[in-house]
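To close the chapter, one final illustration. This time we ask the reader to focus less on the individual chains and more on the assembly as a whole: which components sit near each other, and how the overall shape emerges from the parts.
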Amino acid sequence: MKYLHEFRDKGLASSLAAELEQLVDGPVRFMEVCGTHTMAVFRHGLRSILPEDLYLISGPGCPVCVTSAGYIDAFINVALIPRVTIATFGDMVRVPGTSGSLAHAGARGARIEVVYSPMDALDLADQRPKDLVVFPAIGFETTAPGVAATILEARRRKRENFTVFSAHKVMPPALDALMSNQRLKIQGLLCPGHVSTIIGAKAYKPLAEQYNLSCVIAGFEPIDILQALILLARQAVESRAEVENAYPRAVSWEGNDRAQGLISKVFEPVDAEWRGMGIIPGSGLALRPEFSEFDALERLDIKIPKAPEPKGCRCGEILIGRCLPPDCSLFAKGCTPLEPIGPCMVSTEGTCAAYYRYGRSFSS
Amino acid sequence: MKNKTILLDHGSGGLAGQELISGLFLKHLGNPVLSVLEDSAVIETGVGRLAFTTDSFVVDPVFFPGGDIGSLAVHGTINDLAMRGARPLCLSLGMILEEGLSLADLELIVISIKESSEKAGVPVVTGDTKVVPKGKGDKVFINTSGIGTVPDRVTISAGEARPGDIILLSGTIADHGVTILTRRAGISIKGDLKSDTMALHRFVQALVEALPGTIHTLRDPTRGGMATALCEIAKTAEVGMEIEESGIPIRPEVEAACELLGLDPLYLASEGKCLAFVAPDRSRRALDIMRSQPEGKDASIIGVVTKGPAGRVVLKTAVGGARMVESLSGEPLPRIC
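The assembled structure is written out below.
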């Protein structure tokens, strides 16, 4: 397949791995911010060919995982309101709240439909004119433009029974909050390829300068990731801290103007709670007042309940690289993909799910 | 069982289903024949052995490219018999219809059942129909049971897989799963995505007759996909496995759809493929026999059985890495960013 097999070439991968081995001659710690990177590293078995001294720490880039327990409870509460249909991305369905998940709400009669795009949720509203369709909007700068475009389309269609429950988040403030924590000792960031297509490589410049942090944007194929790690390792060797783009076929310096325009037309920044990191100023996206008719929080007068994190669950620490899944006493015991306790075990991009599915009891 | 209600997860062919089977059904119904959990049960009759199996079909959509619920119900049960090396004799057909189903659709399904069963040479010999009120079912649910005879000296089962066995796959993976998922999501992919539903009994018979005693295990990787099938066999036979990712046949359009939806094809269903565990000295011959038949034209050697640790399936990735393969847990879900 074009642009797939070229980036999974065994010969190329082994020569890149050898080059990386040469560059890494002492312990280095890099963080892969994005959950899709976490999964790709495991799925392709990259850990078995990386230098032993290269530590890859998973970051807060799984949208399901960073959504706080209070929001999950609120989604479930909304699902149980009569004549409401929840149209959601599949990953959300199994995330446990304080009691049960959307899947459990479905078993109690709530209408839960899995959709693949917000536009499908709008179409569902067309098909079910008597229901109020609520779309729990999670995700980062990658998902937000599509949701914004859907809201504009809903207005064009004069759809009165379509609403968005925004739990959207944006990446730069969270990375800034993370890096201001000295204890992490991260030398470089493997920056999220998808988010960067929207916000552009320039978005990492302040981070690189303020925290003396190497930032390399990476694609999601094995060769992309290896190349980006080489750039990070080389910066470490040469004591540089710059923004480099190892994913130029998708990411530009400026990013996607149109998508950025859509986000700022429909959303405005708000303070948002991140699991494991607490409230980060300006890190969330709420619907602007002029779109309040599509705002589920307004229409249904929703208050986000205070919800404790599940007992014993260390997702919060795992999300900020402070511990690894096997450090959690619940991992693979009380908490499995079958009966997840924390969100990192549910999402296909969650660090715990990746460790469980691909990484347990296996070392090269 | 910590979950107090049945969730969709319990039907996805992964760990939740396995837990339901062992924690509830086997707890109450377990017996030496049932508890081995093979694709079909083999029963001593005093005058030979019978294979007996049953399967229910609830696929949505009912009609899909490459087949429909009717052909699937015929092929699925025939294949469960074939996976024990049995020769299918006959099928039963139980139908649960939802009030409001169009008679024209029902007739299409019945004609499809007739055509698949005639083509396979396995007749439907008994049946039953029930109707439930609208909203209490979803168009049509079908149950088929099948009986077959097991030839003398054929002892194919999961527990027979042994270290050194070569693992063959009769063709491309994930065709059925991807077709259904993309249909359900209303996603159209350029290319010819269609279900691979077909009967494998003749294909298996040719293999077993040509290589008596050397085909140790057969399994059709349906729900839960190839990964789950391999893990189950590794656990039952108390062996390990090493699989070469680059040896696994997959159609380009299926691979593209999986990449697009964030699905791992190792976990998606096939409905006309089988895994065969073959003694090493006969594996080339087995591959030739597979490839000489239309059902196995894309057959490939995908790996080898190792001593263990028991239950451990390792995938050598195409890019040169290695990782563990686990059973499916949770329904295959699309990615969100």
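Chain A has 15 helices and twelve strands. The longest helix of chain A spans residues 222-237. With these observations in hand, you are ready for the problems at the end of the chapter.
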